[in-house]
Specification:
This is NUDIX domain-containing protein. The protein contains two helices and ten strands; from the N terminus they run βββββββαβββα. It has 171 residues and is an alpha+beta fold. The protein has two domains: 34 residues; 133 residues, Nucleoside Triphosphate Pyrophosphohydrolase (Alpha-Beta Complex), CATH 3.90.79. The longest helix is centred in the middle third of the chain and has 13 residues.
């Protein structure tokens, strides 16, 4: 974040990063905030199993992940769940059957930028397992896992690991 030095308003090399959430220009008093981004993670479940994806790109390529992604402008978290499940696996979701479970902060490192996120967790229960049509640019495979088979160290992101540890192992 420190590499952003030039003020987008006055053009001077006077932009300073506060180390957490904003840049300020000492020349013209411009302030640029790097706010928290909204993201969703969907626990698609069937009985005592959860559907995981395996990441096919950085960050955390090869690690297990829950389906989901970043919230787009003018989109609700529930709409993001529906869009992401369809984009990643061609799953059509009934938005009214999504159940909000909770949220955790996270840091998403991408191309040398640390994005602070608020990850919103949802559950979507299915009556039977199904075949998935993968978006292979994002996902290399999908796996149904029981909690006895889940290694939390294989989970890509800290927020998901913490949430699953609480949700899956204490529920």
């Amino acid at each position: 974040m420190q590499k952003l030095n030039f003020c987008p308003k006055c053009g001077e090399k006077t932009l300073l990063w506060d180390g957490e959430k904003k840049w300020s220009c000492s020349n013209c008093d411009y302030v640029l905030y790097h706010n928290v981004a909204g993201a969703v993670a969907v626990i698609v479940s069937h009985k005592d199993e959860i559907l995981f994806t395996r990441r096919n790109q950085e960050p955390k390529k090869g690690k297990l992940d829950l389906a989901g992604g970043f919230v787009d402008p003018k989109e609700s978290a529930e709409e993001t769940c529906v869009r992401e499940l369809f984009e990643e696996m061609k799953i059509k979701v009934n938005i009214s059957e999504l159940k909000y479970l909770g949220s955790l902060p996270n840091v998403y490192h991408y191309k040398n930028i640390a994005y602070n996120t608020l990850d919103l967790f949802f559950r979507y229960e299915v009556s039977e397992k199904f075949d998935v049509k993968l978006e292979e640019s994002e996902i290399s495979e999908v796996i149904w896992l029981k909690k006895t088979d889940l290694d939390l160290n294989e989970i890509a992101f800290d927020s998901q690991r913490a949430f699953l540890d609480n949700y899956f192992f204490t529920a």
